[in-house]
Amino acid sequence: MSIKSFLKVIGRGSKGASNLDRDQAKEVFAQILGGNVSDLELGAFCIAMRIKGESASELMGFMDALEPHLHLLNPGARPTIILPSYNGARKQANLTPLLAGMLSAIGFIVLVQGVEKDQTRVTSYAIFESLGWPILNSANAFGSLLSLNTPIFCPLSVISPALQKLLDVREQIGLRNTGHVLAKLINPTTQNPWQVSNYTHPEYPEKLREYFQLRSANAILMRGSEGEPTASLQRLPEMHFLFSNNQDATSSEERFSEFNPFSGIDARSTATIVEKILSGNVACPSSILRQANEISRVAGLI
């Protein structure tokens, strides 16, 4: 099936393009995930959406199409946090596994969902491997990992092989696409957990707020550090807590000045320091400690 009619709507540049409505977005994305479009049309879609940007209604429709392609996990009744990890470390240590470990120690089930490899960055997956923490290899294995009481890494290739294929298009065209935006919004569970949603570009906060409110989700919106859902060592940005009942709260930005306990950004040295912090042998950076405590306070665990 051709998606040419949709490309005419979204492909007229940053000023001439229009948004798809929710049903149109669902239809075009269902065709893409089903492998029913040509490589040429798929590339055109990726570039057009990259230039135009996604609207909240388009994100809703794309997620409607994606849901049948998700292998959902059941964490039970325990409070759960979802941390999307799709960027990794480039200039400083990847702090997502540390945040995950801190939240797990407080009492959350913590699922870090993301990609396994990035040729230019240190992924959370690689750090989980170095830590020996559980990595999901099939949705059926999820239940057996819950008793370990450690964070669990859930590869996108396990959660949604169809969406992973769309992310892999980046290797051919050299640019991230709508699939990367959508992947960060995935709730891979059968429950309504707290999802951390980090952004970089200034046009996204309002879009994401509208999206999560439309989905009646529990979400934490924040500017990420190097594209990861954490504070940096020097700064904890504002965190906007959106409750599924349409209430909201905001924590203030905080700045910190302290030593960097991480001697490098590679997976092994990062994992070594994370282990020492979680065992109490090295002090946790104040920014990550505050982030974990603030999330736990708002989510009702402390």
Written description of the protein model:
The chain is built from 15 helices and nine strands. It is of the alpha/beta class. Helix 3 crosses helix 5, helix 5 crosses helix 13 and helix 6 crosses helix 15. 46% of the residues are buried. It has a seven-stranded mixed sheet with strand order 3-2-1-4-5-7-8, sandwiched between helices.
Mean pLDDT, as a whole number?
94
The value of Rg in angstroms is 19 Å
**Total strands:** 9
Category from helices, strands and their pairing:
alpha/beta
Main β-sheet, in a few words?
A: 7 strands, mixed
Distance N to C terminus: 52 Å
**Uncertain residue ranges:** none
Q: Which strand-content bin applies to the residues?
A: 5-15%
Number of helices: 15
General form: globular
The strand line-up of the biggest sheet is 3-2-1-4-5-7-8
Helix/strand order: HHHHHEHEHHEHHHHEHEEEEEHH
Fraction of residues in H or I helices: 40-55%
Keywords, separated by commas or semicolons:
302 residues, alpha/beta, two-stranded antiparallel ribbon
Q: Could you give a short description of this structure?
A:
The protein is of the alpha/beta class. The protein is 43% helix and 13% strand.
